[in-house]
Each structure stands twice: as C-alpha cells, then as structure tokens.
Amino acid sequence: MLVRSGIAVVALGFLLRFNPLLVVAAAALVTGLAAGLEPVAVLAAFGRAFNDTRYVTIIYIVLPVVGLLERQGLQARARGLVAGMRGATVGRLLLGYMLFRQVTAALGLTSIAGHPQTVRPLVAPMAVAAAERQGFDPPACERVKAMAAGTDNIGLFFGEDIFIAIGSILLIKGTMAQYGYDITPIHLSLWAIPTAVAALLVHGARLLWLDRRA
Amino acid sequence: MIGLDFVYAVAGATFAAFAWLSLTDRSNPRRFGTGAFYGLIAVSFFAGDRLGDVGNGVLVLALVALGGTGAVGRGAAVSSDGAGAEWYGNRLFLPALIVPVVALAGTLLKPDWIDPKQVTLVSLTIGVLVALAVCYVWFRPTVRAPFDAGRGLMDGVGWAAVLPQMLAALGAVFALAGVGDVVGGLAARAIPDGNLFVAVLVYGLGMAGFTIVMGNAFAAFPVMTAGVGVPVLVRGMGGDPALIAAVGMLAGFCGTLLTPMAANFNLVPAVLLDLDRSAVIRAQAPTAVVLLVVNILLIYFLGFRT
C-alpha cells in the first residue's frame, strides 16, 4: 500500500503548483524508496525507461519545417481559409473549426493550430462576434470563448490518434511490446476512428445546440 | 537497413541545432540554461544507448534541474509578416502535407530497406527531410533560417518537451515498484469473477480516473495496462489487444479533458482568454463524460468478438 505514496506526491505536487518535472522526479524517488529499492536503482530504472521512450520526443524534428512555413505565411493563409467561412453562426463556425482540427490532426498536423496560435487570435474572436450578432448576453459570450478552447482540445484529442506517428500511438506500441504484443501503429489508428466519429457527433450536436439557445 | 539509429541521429542533430542557436540567442534571457537543456536532449538522442542506465538517470536529473528551476527560458519567436501568404497561395499547404503523406506511404508500402519494426518513425523522419529539402529549394532561405524558426516554436514548448518522456519513465518506476499491481489489485478485487462488463467498466473508469490524478493519459496508460488491460481483459478474457489498448488510451483522453493537472490544455487557454480557471473544463465536461461512456461500450461490444 505504501507504494501508492508516489501517486499522492503527484496529486499534491500538482495541486500546490510545483514544476511538473520536479513533481515527477520526486514521485519516482518516493515510489522507489517506498518499494524498498536503493536510490541508485531507482535512478537507473528511471534513466533506462527515459532512454527507451525517446521516440515520444522525436516529433519535434518537424518544427524547422513548420516554423519556416509559418514564416512564409502559413498561418495567415490558414486564417484566410477560415475567414472564408463567413456568414456562419457560432455553432456552425465552431463545428467547422472542430472538423478542420480533427482532420488536420489526423494527418499529423497537430501543431498548425492551438490555443496561442489559432484560438486566442482567431477562433474565439470570430465565435464571440457571431454570438453577439445572434444576441448572446455577456456571460453567454464568456461560455462561447470557453467552448472555443474546449473545441480545440476535443478536436485535437480525438483526431490525433488516427495519425500513425503521434506520441500516444507510439507509447501504446512500446507498452504493449513489453507484454509480447507486437501491434502495428496502423491497427491502433483504425480503432481511433469510431471514437473520433462519436466525438464529432456528440460535440458537434452541443455546438449546434448553442445556436438554438439564441 | 535504416532503423531507429537514423531517426535518433536526425533528432539529435535537430536538438543540437536548437541548442547552438539558443546559446547565441541574445533575445533569450536564459540562453545558457535553454541551450544546455536542448544540448542534453541532443546528447540523449546521440549517445543514450552508450551512457548506461545510471548515466541516463544522471542526464534526466540534469534536465530536471534545468527545467524545474526556471533555467529554461524563451527567445523571441521568428515572426511572420504573412507577405508570402498572398504570393504562394494555398500551395503553401503542400510542403506541410509532404510529412504526413510520406509517413503514411512508407508505412503502407513497407520498403525493404527500412527496418520493418520502425517503419512509421523512419518514414516520418524521411518525410521531414524531404519537406525540408523542398522548402530550401522553393523558398531559398538561409541554411539556419528553418532552425531559427523551429527554435522559436521549440522555446514555446520549453521544458514541457520532456514531460511525456518523464511521465512514461515514472510509469516504468511505478511498474517496477508494483504500483500497477496495487492499483490493478484494487481494481481486480472490484471485478466479480468473470464479469466482463464490470471488468471493462473498471478498466475505462480507471484509465480516466488515473489520468485525472496524473494529468496525462501517458502516465495512466502503462499502469492500467499492467493492472487490468493485459492480465484481466486480454489474457483473462481473450480480448483484442490492439482495440483494448487504443480505445483505453482514448478513455484516458476523456480524463485529460476533466483535470486541471493537464495545464497546457485546460489552464493555459483559460488564462489566454481571460476566463475563470475552470471555465474550459466546465465547457468540455459534458462531451468528455459522454465519450467516456462511448469508449467503454466500444470495448465491451467490439473487443471480445472471438
């Protein structure tokens, strides 16, 4: 039972807003010691697992390409594309963004959008403008802003796993390999599709419902 | 045959470039700490297999010391005037599409000069190199320009870049210490003998619940897989390992939508949009709960067909 103290360290550490890297390192140490391991053994186990999971971090090799394309105006172009969907209601606007986010994430283009890049400068202002035109009161407009951020997360989470080289798919592959199950990433990607469709239906219905409240 | 060594060499070179550009980046108030942080990641990619387990552990401690104490800073982002947007039009999306298209093509075609076990990662890496080559030919930037722009984006991620790897390693320590056995034992005791529906329910709720505690499905996944997924659902009840693992991870994602510990998804946007700190979680909650139910039902109805 003592080994669960590591979970308590994580919960407490995040609750008290310590840096997550420090919290994770402390949790690993506490868990290892509680299980009766030597500190050096914990260090070695942590180092080995860190080294074995380096593939999770390789996705950043795409940043020079993305960065250069953004410098050439990729974001402006993407904004132009989204701005082309004018005359839309808040529900249809956010539904369109969700589709865009899901489809591009499924192609592995997870970093072409996000909260700093697209939601704050683009999606939230457009959604609020549409909401005001539809007669939403100020508290409702605040909820529309929160919905814009949530739509980005939901579109991303339930789109990215369709891409075969995303971190979570690679983590699943590595974990299952430890138990002797050699699973090809494309097989995992296919099983992400039913939930992706369900996310579009459920969240899409909630977005369109926003229009009926006006 | 091209394998993981090639992938890690490219990743090491990329982080070495980020490290060098950060060290010389006068717009970054913490340029030495930032450069050292990226440099250590480059060392991990280049030489991780030769450092030994304790050596890698020391490397992680150094990363934590830098990333956990605010020594990793942020340089100026390379701004876009967007002037190219008019000039290049929608063709600008083409180089961005090279990466996923090459990754997908390589994975489906499986050429025999690629290590079949690493075909996705190798194809992705080749896709990045092809896209980079196309960008050099098409836009004629200076040699360092893509890496300057990439460094700007990398600084936005900062110390969080190694958090997923840290959480995966924590999962391994949890496994070594038997936390999965304890959680799995608790879960297994909650499962009446041979009751498939309750077993699936415990797996799905456990995945989401543990993600809420840990803030990341990456940390919950190895624990719930060790505790319930593999021993109970796959080995005990003959479930499909690919479906149970893939949908189980998505059940974890439902938990990510509900927890303040997933700070970059739930708290940062609330700050960016001047909202109450729990506003984004409240907006996401109904969708997350319904999708959790959907995922549990998917595993129950599709995971045990044979």
UniProtKB/TrEMBL annotation, chain B:
- Top-level division of the source organism's lineage: Bacteria
InterPro entries the UniProt entry points to: DUF979
**Keywords on this record?**
Membrane, Transmembrane, Transmembrane helix
What residue intervals traverse the membrane? Answer: 6-23, 35-52, 58-80, 92-109, 121-139, 159-177, 197-221, 242-263, 283-303
For this UniProt entry, which residues form the secretion signal? Answer: none
List the protein's name.
Putative membrane protein
Coiled-coil segments on the chain, per record: none
